[in-house]
Amino acid sequence: MKVKRFIGQNMESTLQRVREEMGRNAVILNQRRIRPGSGLMKLFKKPVYEIVAATDEMGLGEGIPIKDTDDGYVALEEKLDRLKATMDTIANSITLADKDREIPEMLAPYHSAMEKSEVDPEVIHMVMEGVKNKINLNTTYDQEYIYYRFKQEISSYFKRVETIKLSDGKPAVAVFVGPTGVGKTTTLAKLAAHYSVIMKKKVGVMTCDTYRIAAVEQLKTYSEIMDVPIRVIYQKSDIEEAMQQYKDMDLVLVDTAGSSYRDKMKLMELNKMLKALGDQQLFLVISASTNYRNVMEILSSYSFLKNYKVLITKVDENVSNGIILNIAVKSGKPLSYITTGQSVPDDIEKVDGERIASLILSDR
């Protein structure tokens, strides 16, 4: 692993040196603005910018912070989490299996379908009870009607769907937060393309993800293609300047740096940045391929966010769709969009409860 310190007259030129010398996969370990002071800094009459960057010379990683690759405890902790999640699921399943022991024959295929889709046992029980309360178990129904009842019951958990809302007279600000690797940057690009190219709205983009040079470059490329302005936020004061530049926009989309949901310091930094942005529509981005235990930890870690919508990515990569229903029930928050591929702007859509119910019940 190669670590190097860069000093320059401004942040853009210093980042350019990092790109040239260390490549696009370099990871920013630290960045700061240094005022003229004692020691060597007396040589500079104006403030300078310092960036400490690292790159994996052996090519074993791609944009991965040192502390993540070298910390064996993280891997051990994740294994223990998976083991605990398995034990919790088994214990919960046994308890709820007792409650659902006598499943009516006509309802059994749908109970089985939800299990195959990895719907949480507690949620399955809620759905089963909801259907039982709407039918007469002593009456014979055709399967079409039973399917309709299950579909409606599951859909009822998706009544609160909230997407981006544009404002009159001032730009709407939509901010995307969430763990590393869930697809925030690509999702933002899809929405930018939808609103600017398809809906013909004036859109501005801001990115606070200066830890990953590749992410900034990716957004800049999309912005050039869509002819959408982009501002890179290095410090709090940059937000005010960017918002002044975007005062005539219909919509401002803000990308934030991903971090481990266990990194309390990064979450505190995120909270400060969100306060600096003022009025905003907040979207917590979660990948559908995340295991259920980790989803629950993510929801707990981001509980300091009071008003947010959930945006679920990588549904196309998930082998079961029960996680979407689990998130809707356990988060208690409105859902917004799901993404179903990498294509910009096509592979994003508003959450449709009936469609998700159909996906969950497809294995009956």
The N- and C-terminal alpha carbons lie at a distance of 51 Å
Total number of β-strand segments?
Answer: 11
Structural class by sheet pairing and helices: alpha/beta
Overall pLDDT, averaged? Answer: 82
Total number of distinct structural domains: 2
Tell me the radius of gyration.
24 Å
Count of helical stretches: 13
Per CATH, the class of the largest domain reads Alpha Beta
Shape, per Cα inertia axes:
elongated
The portion of residues forming beta strands comes to: 15-25%
Q: What is the H-and-E element order? A: EHEEHHHHHEHEHEHEHEHEHEEH
Identify the CATH architecture of the largest domain.
3-Layer(aba) Sandwich
* pLDDT < 50 runs, ≥5 residues: 38-44, 58-73
Could you state the CATH homologous superfamily of the largest domain? P-loop containing nucleotide triphosphate hydrolases
CATH fold call of the largest domain? Rossmann fold
**Largest beta-sheet details:** 8 strands, mixed
